[in-house]
Amino acid sequence: MKILIGTNNAHKVREVRQILETELTGKFDLLTPADVFDEEIDVEETGLTLDKNAFLKADEFFSKSGIPCFADDTGLEINALHGHPGVRSARFAGEDCDDAANRKKALDLLKDVPDSDRSAQFRTVICFKDGTDTLYVHGVCPGKIIKEERGGEGFGYDSIFVPEGYEQTFAQMSAELKNKLSHRGKAVAKLVKILKDY
Amino acid sequence: MKILIGTNNAHKVREVRQILETELTGKFDLLTPADVFDEEIDVEETGLTLDKNAFLKADEFFSKSGIPCFADDTGLEINALHGHPGVRSARFAGEDCDDAANRKKALDLLKDVPDSDRSAQFRTVICFKDGTDTLYVHGVCPGKIIKEERGGEGFGYDSIFVPEGYEQTFAQMSAELKNKLSHRGKAVAKLVKILKDY
Questions:
Q1: Do A68 and A124 form a contact (C-beta atoms < 8 A)?
Q2: Residue A20 burial (CB count, 10 A)
Q3: What residues in A contact B190, CB-CB < 8 Å?
Q4: A1 interfaces chain B, CB cutoff of 8 Å
Q5: CB A41 within 8 A of CB A58
Q6: CB–CB contact A197 B198 (8 Å)
Q7: Rg for chain B, CA atoms, rounded
Q8: What is the pLDDT along chain A (198 residues), one digit of tens a residue?
Q9: Cα gap B12→B39, rounded to integer Å
Q10: How many domains in chain A?
Q11: pLDDT at residue B19 above 70?
């Protein structure tokens, strides 16, 4: 089954590829936008929820390609910040800011917050869309925000997030371990389960 | 797995029960609103699309019960009427009108339309919702609108709709045959396929 991943984010493509390979080798022929389009498709993420933004991306890439498509949107919900940055995680420090600026803003805001109140969760919503159906699956990974960055793997907020039950940040883990625990790993695994008999 | 069907329509409950029994006996413990609530839950179908109305119902019944829930919304799309009545199928002849009035309106509007231009399709969208995920599946049944009602089974527009490849209307068929061909049967079967490994 041909399936297009609706993202221009190379980190996400790599991660999803790793997860799919572990889960179900050979079942899906995973295409990226670069395999399908001559020009980069840029989808404005104007939704107020992860579901909506995941839909906007899946819908646009499906409409333009006709290939069953899935796209994710992911947010870090910090409980001491009432769930922020959430849907604005990628642009927390401003439009077009980079991951480092976003992490810095989170750490600054949590500067005086004690260890006991630094819980957070990553949430991924994947939207899958083909000619008929639209499926949304969620994956959640609970954990906490530490006080200083640790580790060089991963991307986004990985270096300041320690998943529940572990001491390492996502950025200190092997891709294999991160994918097993992570929000995105869980959401992709659920989607695969659904699609394998589809 | 306990699963609640989010409808007060006894015809739909009966049909879904028949389909689930054929598909996967014993896997689902299908509950109806009467099994769960003391009072009737009435959801206003204010959506402009089948997807939206199916969501409104699934969401309301899930929120109030905490039980994984699915609800359908179904429309008859008559091509000579540019896809109408579609999402307004149940209230085509006016709010609180009955099935007979809706059928009469459709037949009246198609009075002078020749056989060759009376194609139509039934479309069902089922929305499934639990604490994390939201799944929309579609089922479509192509066919045509005949000139006079035939048959006493079924409900809604069944007695004026002949599915492609058949001579009988849905209202002249056994429940078993209708469920095999029908929009709702296809959508439920797809949902079952997804949920059985869920």
A1: no
A2: 21
A3: 133
A4: no
A5: no
A6: no
A7: 17
A8: 899 999 988 888 888 888 887 665 567 788 999 999 999 999 999 999 999 999 999 999 999 999 999 999 999 999 999 999 999 999 999 988 899 999 999 999 999 999 999 999 999 999 999 989 999 999 999 999 999 999 998 899 999 999 999 999 999 999 999 999 999 999 998 998 888 777
A9: 19
A10: 1
A11: yes
Can you tell me the distance from the alpha carbon of A165 to that of B187, in angstroms, rounded to the nearest whole number?
Answer: 40
Q: CA of B131: which chain A residue's CA is closest?
A: A138
Is A49 near chain B, with CB under 8 Å?
Answer: no
Active site residue B72: no
A152: CATH: 3.90.950.10
List the structure tokens of B155.
Answer: 């409900």
User: What does the pLDDT average to over B32-54?
Assistant: 93
- Residues of A designated as active site: 73
Q: Average pLDDT in the B46-59 region?
A: 95
B135 touches chain A (CB under 8 A): yes
Q: What is the Cα–Cα distance from A63 to A112, expressed in whole angstroms?
A: 47
Interchain CB contact of A37 with B (< 8 Å): no
Residue of B nearest to A132 (CA): B138
In degrees, to the nearest 5, what angle opens at C-alpha A169 toward C-alphas A164 and A172? 135
Range of the domain at B141: 2-196
- So what's the ipTM on this one? 0.71
Residues A169 and A159 sit within 8 Å (Cβ to Cβ): yes
Residue B112 distance to chain A (closest CA, Å): 32
pLDDT score of A88: 95
Q: Which residues contact B173 (CB under 8 A, 6 or more apart)?
A: B151, B153, B154, B166, B181
For an interface test with B, give the residue of A126, A134, A137 to mutate (most B CBs within 10 A). A134
Closest CA to B118 of B166, B87, B164, B158: B164
- Residue of B50, B55, B124, B133 to mutate for A, most A C-beta atoms under 10 A: B133
